[in-house]
Amino acid sequence: MDENVRYITGIDVGSENVRAVVATIDRDGSVSVVGYNEGKNAGMQKGVVDTLSGPAEAIDKMLLEVERMSGFSINSAFVSINGSNVMSVQASGRIALGTPDHEITEADLERVEGATVLGKVPANREILDVLPLSYTLDGQSGIKDPLGMTGLLLEMNANVISALMPTAVNLRKSLDGGGITAEKLVPSVCAAATAVLTERQRENGVAVVDLGYATTGVAIYENGDLQYVGVIPVGANNITNDLAILLQVPTEIAEDIKRRFVTGLFKDDDKEIVVKKGRDELAFSRKEVNRVVRDRLDEIFEGVVNEIKLAGYAKKLPEGIVFVGGGSKMRDLDVYAKSVLQTATRIGLPTGFGGVADAIKTPDYACALGLALLAARTAPAPVHKTSKKSTSKKSGNKKEKLNFLSKLFGKF
Ligand SMILES: Nc1ncnc2c1ncn2[C@@H]1O[C@H](COP(=O)(O)OP(=O)(O)OP(=O)(O)O)[C@@H](O)[C@H]1O
Ligand SMILES: [Mg+2]
Prior knowledge:
The chain folds into 3 domains: 6-83 and 166-197 and 351-409, ATPase, nucleotide binding domain (Nucleotidyltransferase, domain 5), CATH 3.30.420.40; 87-164, Dna Ligase, domain 1 (2-Layer Sandwich); 229-347, Nucleotidyltransferase, domain 5. 34% of the residues lie in helices and 30% in strands. The protein contains 11 helices and 19 strands. The chain starts with 5 loop residues before the first strand and ends with a helix. Adenosine-5'-triphosphate (ATP) is lined by residues 14-17, 47, 82, 188, 212-215, 235-237, 240, 255, 258-259, 325-327, 329-330, 364.
């Protein structure tokens, strides 16, 4: 066992699927994926846990293969949080620094962060992260990093990300049930953005849209920072359900039609779509199928446009929209999205890591990979290589240290 090996884990708890990625961090900070797996989830309602044992069992089962593949025992992870209760609000706060020669310290930054969030988030919400957008020191605005600077009055402008308290608490409980301590909860779409965006996109202005099973997340980045996050309670499974209702077939058949026959080019030829049901063959009008899928996609895209407007970024995203999530695996989805949304569109394929990861350079693994990348920026998990899973919890001290360091470096 190499004592210098540090490893981290990202777990994406989705409405339909759970996915995990384990990666090692080399001394130079590069991240190599050494294990991954996915499985069906249960007990989720539009991104939110509604039965604690559902995700606990699904994660436990799914992780067996990840642990076998990587040889690491997994008992803590960065974890995704989702649902329309996840939101961001911009806030500002100020503090006096005392004497004129006072140099700004970490403690001052913590204090101004406290002043910024004070009273900005209702008591029934948990703050997931406070992302500094800029600081103003004695009237000089636009400061990115005031640490060590001298001044009298420090003001912070930040993006405060929060979720409903029960959503966060129950997600952690469910993970606990599966023997996992959630070191940090990150909105799914923000985690995915970490794995698919370039620095240039984050600087210039871009939206990431996570088209999942039951939700569609929207995150907007500009000047290198997350500016907005919102989640719409509609996803790619609504397309499947619409097809099942219209074609009067079980959802498995509707899903099969969606995956094999629908493309974003929506060519209305007269060829019928033919699928097998037992020994029978069923035929459907391509035109009808296209119409149903297009209608639902239009509704989802309308929701996306609304979120972008709410964020104040309508027609202000030079780098366009990057799609992630399983729903973006629909063939030529980006082509249709471009025609409706009138902006550059692309499908986000995760990058930023090496290892055994070719099979997971897909838009539906972006979230789990992004969580691993975010975790890699924080303190390392303890070195403990074994093929036997341990569900032991971290000691209070270790956890405190990790939380402190995640706070410093794990911003998304
Ligand atoms: N090849 C494909 N073509 C079209 N749709 C696909 C394809 N593969 C997966 N999907 C769709 O992706 C969706 C699942 O996406 P994903 O795994 O990202 O969801 P999730 O993370 O479990 O859910 P959520 O993010 O909403 O909580 C399903 O609705 C499925 O139909
Ligand atoms: Mg998801």
